[in-house]
Amino acid sequence: MSLILSIVIPVYNTENFLSECLESLRGLSSFRDKAEVIVVDDASPGDPERITRNYESILNLKYFRHQTNSSVFQARKTGIEHAGGLYVLSLDSDDYLISMDWAELLKRLEERDLDILQYAIAREKKRAL
């Protein structure tokens, strides 16, 4: 079975959010043969590689690092160039996915010849402390 979905996550100076982003993909652990997560470190001053490595046993992960900061566009482009999935989902490292039915999503992508798949976006309101 070939990969169906590649999730590309560009990272620059967002290490404080990266764990939550990757944690939101935990549901993909049952679908390592169908989905991959590609983290592209755009020469971030922090240590996104250490955070990413914490998820290697859970997710089908690839990690790439730019030597110099290029741009979020170039980081996404690097991820897409290394993507093995039929479909690509771009996810910002300071965002996360909630309530994803990965089995249903992968089934729809696998069964249909789609050019694009659109789904709802929810915004979380930050509470004041």
Can you tell me about this structure?
This protein is of the alpha/beta class and 129 residues long. The protein is built from four helices and four strands; from the N terminus they run E-H-E-H-E-H-E-H. A four-stranded parallel β-sheet has the order 3-2-1-4. Strand 2 (35-41), helix 2 (48-53) and strand 3 form a beta-alpha-beta unit. The model has no long low-confidence stretch (mean pLDDT 90).
What is the average of the pLDDT values? 90
Q: What is the helix fraction of residues, given as a range?
A: 25-40%
Number of distinct helices: 4
Estimated share of beta-strand residues: 15-25%
Count of DSSP strands: 4
Poorly predicted sequence stretches spanning 5 or more consecutive residues:
none
Question: What gap, in angstroms, lies between the N and C termini?
Answer: 48 Å
User: What gross morphology would you assign?
Assistant: globular
Order of helices and strands: EHEHEHEH
Secondary-structure-derived class: alpha/beta
| Cα radius of gyration in angstroms | 15 Å
Task: Kindly report the spatial arrangement of strands forming the biggest sheet.
Answer: 3-2-1-4
Could you give a short account of the major beta sheet?
4 strands, parallel
